[in-house]
Amino acid sequence: MRAPTLDLTLLRTLVAIADTGSVTAAAKRLAYTQSTVSMQLQRLETQLALTLHEREGRRIRFTSEGGRLLVHARRLLALNDDAWSDMQARQVTGDLTLGIPEDYASLLPSVFAYFHQLYPAVGLKVICGTSVHLVEQVKAKELDLALVTRQRNSPGGDVIRREPLVWAVGVDRQPLLSDPLPLALYSPGADVFREVAEQALQAAGRNWRVAYTSQSMTGLAPLVTAGLAIVVVTRSMLTPALRPLDESSGLPALPMIELALHRAPHRPSEPARRLGELIREQLAAPTEAL
Q1: Most confident range, picked from 1-10, 102-111, 131-140
Q2: How far, in Å, CA of 9 to CA of 233, rounded?
Q3: Domains of the chain from N-terminus onward
Q4: Quick one: pLDDT at residue 288?
Q5: Average pLDDT for residues 62-81, to the nearest whole number?
Q6: Phi, psi (5° rounding) for residue 147?
Q7: How far apart are CA 59 and CA 135, in angstroms?
Q8: What's the number of CA atoms in the CB half-sphere (13 Å) around residue 67?
Q9: How far apart are CA 263 and CA 200, in angstroms?
Q10: Which residues contact 140 (CB under 8 A, 6 or more apart)?
Q11: What is d(CA 163, CA 4) in angstroms, rounded to the nearest whole number?
């Protein structure tokens, strides 16, 4: 009689839930819907005829059986990933240049680590710049790929993800929300965030003043956390030092922005194609409420 075989896809879901602590976060990591993650966990329990988890509010707590399986799951996945890496490393070589805005670098550490694990013979170079400039570099074939905020005056690229923009202030300090509103904005032409914020305020009949400008959030953050200005960011750009403002602030609602992956105007190299696939898998998870 053939021995039962554990499904690695289900085990990877189990590990993602353990690492993130919730179905919502696991779905985001795996680029699945929450219902898919829940069903995969249920399938694993059905196959083993065991209860592997219990809910504690929004968190997941593993039973003793779930904890034991988690140890085996990590070992099996590590062996699988090592075998895949060994086989792929002999097939994919070359150099690859990716452009990203500095503010999006925090979205991709796991992608970079996994890409290097799979393709250690590929030389990856990452260049940071404004979205507008990076799109121009891709068109000029100076970059193989660029992950950018889609700009109104430079459409194109494959939309990877949509994110809501929010107004944010320092977690401990904030300015008065009366006119003229003190804003920390990207430099003119650096990104669509500034244009969107100013149009929303103008439509709402609000007055504002530009208290600080920079090419990236790194330059804007000190003034915002000091409580001297309001900034516009995506939810993924929020840090523990920033607090989003809700509708009770009286500020106008902001639209969604699109993250787009641009490719150089020629047939992509194999390294570029594979990195593009990994970026899409990592960032394409839908935003859902638990």
Answers
A1: 131-140
A2: 34
A3: 8-89 (1.10.10.10), 94-159+258-284 (3.40.190.10), 162-256 (3.40.190.10)
A4: 39
A5: 92
A6: -100, 115
A7: 41
A8: 5
A9: 31
A10: none
A11: 42
